[in-house]
């Protein structure tokens, strides 16, 4: 076997591999000889099948395995001997000439093929001590705890029938049956029976609840309302609908009291314990926002520190992933690039920059993590898998089995854990200044879209989002009722 490098240009490498017919024949004969003691063929005693007969029966399938093994071995050899770090799997290109392939499959002629590689760029990891970031924190105001208690008390208050002749008012609960129509045609999922509507709660699409004010038990009325433009069900978004409603009962709310009894409804010992739990929950939310903003600063700083060539295939792959999501978002919202105040060309240019940033930061964080020997333990991965499974009530086992049987999916689950550890490693050395700000300042993330940790390395740069950024659709129309927002 002869391996010759034919291209070294930027991050691209190409090698020409020549497999002499003699080598192919030797490998094929060895495999057939090994097969001799394993196969059972009528008319022959075990282990006595002539090799030539095996060749006639199994020759092509065995040679296919031989060639695959040779290709794999050669690729490993090329990578190891040239000390390469690959960006993607090697691309193998065989000759198009059928006669050449047939000759190789029968070991009558040599086989020459090309291996194309893209390697990762080499760069020096900068000193983290030069990084300066600010961690924002905020105190939880007592007013926010009081507001939370009021909401919880209101949500858990009891309702009692007002009477047959009582009219529904704002704050009342109305139990209804309804059927929805668009252009006079009933639409899928547009019906509901014994549905409770709390007037003024904002649970249903705009205009629906308000039109129940004044309704009485036994009354039938028609409600006209329009689904929001960003409604989760694309076939309903922005559509005007008519709902035939039958009012079955009107209920008035009872008193909403904030006391120890309310706390017990939430599994707490007393009101003080409930307040402490609320404070802890809000503090957790504040900490998560502060972490996101801190991390975004860090990624911005890293993005400014590094400039190197990016593997073209990785860049293309990342852009295509982003672009598919953009087009999907636009399709769901029923909008075009013009509706977003831009053009497709301008949007592509902006998202190409975002894709480059994501790839660059991903490579930087990966190199830092490798040098720091950052590892994700089996326990940490298992815990992450458990948390993911909990997001799908009733389907936990299916989700668990899916990830356990799909290494690529499991790797995607591992990636954000690895990234968070790398970020912590950098922050341990970087200069981090703590700053106490108001709640409003902390929660103001207008300089960048907040993202979950799983997307952190793909965060977009500040002010780099094009006007055509497709809005995320609202939750799918699969909540309590088809009319709920």
TrEMBL record:
Subcellular location, principal: cytoplasm
PPIase FKBP-type domain: residues covered: 171-253
Enzyme Commission code: 5.2.1.8
Protein's job: Involved in protein export. Acts as a chaperone by maintaining the newly synthesized protein in an open conformation. Functions as a peptidyl-prolyl cis-trans isomerase.
Keywords: Cell cycle, Cell division, Chaperone, Cytoplasm, Isomerase, Rotamase
Residue segments, region Disordered: 437-485
Gene name tied to this protein: tig
Origin organism lineage: Bacteria, Pseudomonadati, Pseudomonadota, Alphaproteobacteria, Hyphomicrobiales
Protein name according to UniProt: Trigger factor
EC top class, as a word: isomerase
